[in-house]
Amino acid sequence: MLLISFDHEASSLPEIKPIAQVILRHAFSRNLRIIGMSLFAEGTAIGYNMLSETAREFDKGYGSDFVFLGFKPQYISAILGMGESIRSVFPEDYLGNPLDSLPLMKHIDNYDSISMVISIADGDRAVQWIEYAGARYNQKILAGLTAAMITTYDPYLNSGQLYSVVGGLKGAAEYETLYGRPGSGSRGLLAQTTSHIFIIALIIIGNIIYFRNRASRKGRG
Amino acid sequence: MDLGVIIAGILTLAIYSFLYKDNSIYKMAESLLIGLSIGYTLVIFWQSTMIDLLIVPLFGNGKIILIVPLALGLMMFGRFSTSFSWLSRIPLSFMIGAGAGVAIPAMLYARTLKQVSASVAPLITESGSFNFSELVIVIGLLSTLAYFYFGRRREGVFGRIAGVGTYFLMIFFGATFGYTVMSRLSTLIGRVDFLLTDFLHILK
User: Fold this and answer.
1) Which residues of chain A make contact with B41, given a CB cutoff of 8 A?
2) Residue A88's closest chain B neighbor by CA?
3) Which of A112, B51, B58, B155 would give a disulfide with B159, using CB separation of 3.0 to 4.6 Å?
4) What DSSP state is assigned to residue A141?
5) Which residue of A has its CA nearest to B43?
6) Buried b (16+ CB within 10 A) or exposed e, B187-200
7) A5 with A125: CB under 8 angstroms?
């Protein structure tokens, strides 16, 4: 049983979507059951749509193979509250169904029934999962992050507080290769590699112009 | 073509029109984005907080205890009046006290104790080989701490150690900047991919 939290905004979707898609595809292909949720208001509808779309690819049913709990503000109290009782934090799912009416949630009460939490984040929300669910409830935390956040999370990865990270388009492309189904991450990485080569070429050209100008100024002086 | 794709495509081009110059189409798209984001967030917050956590349990299920958070919430509006502004100090102090009580132990453990223990590892591994990475971590940690120690003048050996710290800081900032460029490029690639594939159907 996985808990996937879509802790991101719509603006980071081009980078976040390939990461989320490959994680969801891998999980559904291994017949893992998924509980989705969000600690960001903007991530709620996006997370539900991504989860539902990927579930359709694998013929997975809502309520039995996956559920989406929706959004909760006050993320610290939500994370801590779920450690005691998920029902107390989310009495109903995103669609308004009482949790007890969903077969998947019948025997799920707190983190004890969840093997890992994956936070798909474009900010520091995964840190809160580490600090509260990881530290207090010994929950295994993984993260799918935008590239800009990778250095922020490196210390947590090195200390073992974060079990694993999929970082940026590069991480998504690597995961897709391992999973054996290239997707939008691999396609985006090709464009990204080309643009990196272009940037490196511009840096080299800029430096050559700078040093030539400096040499000619020295020559004149 | 899907109406949503057409709107998204036009709005993307409207935002990119800023690359030419600031114009009214860009301003309209920018205002629409901010307005939509705030409106959407407000509705979600209203539903998931006020309705689900307060109004339904209090008035529907009779959970009388919820009068306490309701009263604390109403006291916050005291800030709008000079004669009642003192009322807002009660919920604020409650929030700060509760927040600090919850956050300090968790942050001390996760950000300080665990990080310190992860930084202190043997230089010789169990198999007897030399752990070069750990040596780099120790040098980086001590020299960076020396850089941020302002109780002593940076001269002599201490100054040279602090100088080494600046190199580690520059490497960190360089890596962070590189990753940020990578992240922004990914966003641009995603938008261009959307424009060429879904909106204009130039790519398949």
Assistant:
1) 41-42
2) B53
3) B155
4) E
5) A41
6) bebbbbbbbeebbe
7) yes
Domains, chain A, ordered by start: 2-184 (3.40.50)
Between the CA atoms of A129, A131, A133 and A135, what dihedral angle is there, to the nearest 10 degrees? 150
Across the interface, of B37, B48, B102, the residue whose CB is closest to A42 is B37
Strands A66-71 and A34-38: parallel
B110 contacts on A by Cβ (under 8 Å): 127, 130-131, 134-135, 161
Nearest chain B residue to A42 by CA: give it: B41
What ipTM is given for this predicted complex? 0.81
> Which pLDDT tens digit goes with each residue over A174-213?
999 999 988 888 888 888 899 999 999 999 999 999 999 9
- Helix ranges, A7-144 (H): 13-29, 41-57, 75-84, 86-89, 125-128, 135-137
| pLDDT tens-digit readout, B96-140 | 999 899 889 988 998 899 988 888 888 888 888 888 888 999 999
Q: Nearest CB to A192: which of B40, B48, B189?
A: B189
Which of B92, B98, B138, B100 minimizes the C-alpha distance to B119?
B138
Say yes or no for a CB contact (<8 Å) between A76 and B102: yes
Query: What's the DSSP call for residue A180?
Result: T
Which tokens sit at B182? 């990578």
Query: What's the Cα-to-Cα distance from B171 to each of A41, A151, B167, rounded to whole Å?
Result: 35, 11, 6
